[in-house]
């Protein structure tokens, strides 16, 4: 769903144009050549990781709801949140993969995660690829970009806090807006354009789906709407207790907040709309490689190598670590490649927050 930040108007001072960064062709060539054998996904890894993450997430959620101890409820809720966050993160892989290479994986992901969590794959497919378009990245046409580092300091906490409302927004989207939009054509267009994308750019508008994409969209939306209505009905009739519902919503909110924190540090957010070279886009993006350990939790499924992913979007998540090792060993210490690597989340948050405090 388009972020709740669409209701905000960001007041930011004009920033000077970024200096043009020429493409480092040696880096781009070396990265491509060193990883040619890493473009094939391993189906066993994908399916095993997804199924295990989903099972752990749902089992821990059931445990959190059923145990009497408050302490164990909190522990199990955190475990559930982290596992479901990992399972949810496969939507990024779904948006990039050639589905013929992993038959039925998109359908399996939607059954296990997309529909239950009310984030069907169509909310990212057809959206995320625009973020990777060379002429769109960092511009007003990029659905996943805002110049956060150039905005006012208050925008960063708001950016994080509004994400906690995502589960409520998704429930409204599918339990209320989906059925109503079938009766009101003008509402249908607004729902598709403004409330059907995992985007942070408040100016982004989706196109109406067509052909095969429309058929898949309609099936997934119907499934999500039925599940959302059933969930509301079960809570209203007492089949699901208020406590259980509240714990489930808290876990979903935790997933959304952690994902938003990861989003905050996925880029440096220093571009204010001009087109950028591939190298400039890379340097505006972030890798958090080993030896840091916590990124395994807050940037799972290869998202800790986000800058590398922008260079090589076709490399499956389970090969990104090897790709990073090869490229790091191949390129000289002064290569721009190494400049996109950071130690962890706290330093990145401070870097972006400090940039918002600069008077422009």
TrEMBL record:
**Keyword Ribosomal protein carried by entry:** no
Q: Where is the Fatty acid desaturase domain?
A: 71-338
Report if keyword rRNA-binding is assigned. no
TM ranges: 55-84, 105-124, 154-176, 216-236
Alphabetically ordered keywords of this record: Membrane, Transmembrane, Transmembrane helix
User: What Pfam families does this protein's entry cite?
Assistant: FA_desaturase
UniProt protein name:
Fatty acid desaturase
Q: What is the organism of origin for this protein?
A: Sphingomonas corticis
């Amino acid at each position: 769903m388009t972020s709740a930040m669409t209701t905000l108007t960001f007041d930011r001072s004009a920033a000077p144009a970024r200096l043009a960064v020429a493409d480092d062709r040696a880096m781009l060539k070396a990265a491509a050549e060193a990883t040619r054998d890493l473009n094939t996904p391993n189906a066993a890894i994908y399916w095993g990781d997804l199924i295990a993450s989903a099972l752990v997430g749902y089992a821990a959620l059931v445990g959190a709801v059923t145990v009497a101890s408050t302490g164990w409820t909190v522990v199990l809720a955190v475990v559930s949140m982290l596992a479901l966050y990992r399972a949810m993160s496969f939507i990024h892989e779904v948006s990039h993969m050639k589905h013929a290479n992993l038959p039925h994986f998109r359908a399996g992901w939607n059954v296990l995660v997309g529909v239950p969590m009310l984030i069907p794959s169509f909310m990212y497919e057809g959206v995320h690829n625009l973020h990777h378009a060379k002429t769109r990245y960092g511009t007003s046409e990029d659905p996943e970009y805002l110049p956060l580092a150039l905005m006012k300091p208050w925008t960063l906490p708001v950016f994080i806090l509004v994400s906690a409302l995502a589960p409520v927004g998704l429930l409204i989207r599918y339990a209320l807006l989906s059925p109503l939009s079938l009766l009101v054509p003008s509402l249908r267009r607004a729902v598709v354009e403004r409330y059907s994308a995992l985007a942070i750019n408040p100016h982004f508008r989706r196109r109406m789906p067509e052909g095969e994409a429309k058929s898949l969209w309609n099936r997934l939306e119907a499934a999500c709407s039925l599940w959302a209505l059933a969930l509301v009905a079960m809570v209203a009739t007492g089949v699901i207790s208020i406590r259980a519902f509240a714990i489930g919503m808290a876990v979903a909110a935790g997933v959304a907040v952690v994902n938003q924190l990861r989003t905050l540090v996925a880029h440096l957010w220093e571009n204010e709309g001009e087109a950028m070279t591939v190298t400039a886009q890379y340097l505006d993006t972030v890798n958090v490689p080993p030896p840091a350990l916590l990124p395994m939790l807050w940037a799972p499924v290869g998202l800790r190598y986000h800058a590398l992913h922008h260079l090589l979007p076709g490399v499956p998540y389970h090969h990104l670590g090897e790709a990073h090792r090869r490229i790091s060993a191949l390129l000289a210490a002064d290569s721009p490649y190494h400049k996109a690597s950071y130690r962890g989340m706290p330093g990145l948050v401070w870097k972006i927050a400090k940039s918002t405090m600069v008077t422009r």
